[in-house]
Write a structure and sequence with these properties.
alpha/beta, Aminopeptidase, two-stranded antiparallel ribbon, binds pyroglutamic acid, six-stranded mixed sheet
Length: 206
């Protein structure tokens, strides 16, 4: 089973991003149950989804797990829906773009649902003691755009891939004053193992 895992570069004045830290950790680990490939994506509307869209056709992953950070959220956020909207007037991307009311894809459908087994993932995470919750908004910034673009490509080409987005809480070193909830990198790594196991188990049961 081929699993593509992505994280994002830092953005918006942050010096790091726990999702790219997760990707670096994955690169040092071995996962004998699956073929895992990673990417760190740029935080730009123009390029965020391009490497993944390309890989959907060349490497042909069975599963795409897109990770990013949502500072302020207390648990792992399992994003259920991506919407056809880019709207972040106060938050420039890493190329200085800050669109207002712009569609991700012109004439595209209003939204796509995640095709990951999110209910099973949530249960496994919670049973493993990792705070996890469904989220019904991936925002209107780069993470939502990436999720929408990947699901749109899979849908438009009827690709047999399960794909979706998972937001991580901030890491403790991003919030030195403790003003927002955080999650330790070790917990994020444990969460990743749970997510991988859930997907592999579900696939074996089909
Ligand atoms: N989080 C941002 C973009 C990159 C990231 O890690 C978002 O939620 O859109």
């Amino acid at each position: 089973m081929r699993i593509l895992v992505t994280g994002f570069e830092p953005f918006g004045g942050m010096t790091q991003n726990p999702s790219s830290k997760l990707v670096s950790w994955i690169d040092e680990e071995t996962f004998p149950e699956a073929e895992v490939k990673t990417m760190t994506l740029p935080v730009t509307y123009s390029q965020c989804a391009e490497p993944v869209v390309e890989a959907l056709h060349s490497w042909k992953p069975d599963v795409v797990l897109l990770f990013g950070v949502a500072a302020g959220r207390p648990s792992i956020s399992l994003e259920r829906i991506a919407i056809n909207m880019e709207d972040a007037p106060g938050l420039e991307d890493n190329e200085g773009e800050a669109p207002v009311d712009r569609p991700v894809v012109n004439e595209g459908p209003a939204a796509y649902f995640s095709t990951l087994p999110l209910r099973e993932i949530k249960e496994t995470l919670q049973q493993g003691g990792v705070p996890a919750a469904f989220s019904y908004s991936a925002g209107t910034y780069i993470c939502n755009t990436t999720m929408y673009r990947v699901l749109h490509e899979a849908s438009a080409h009827s690709l047999p891939v399960q794909a979706g987005f998972i937001h991580l809480p901030a890491s403790p070193d991003m919030i030195p004053d403790g003003s927002k909830p955080t999650m330790a990198p070790e917990t994020v790594q444990r969460a990743f193992r749970h997510i991988l196991q859930t997907i592999i188990k579900k696939e074996a049961a089909v």
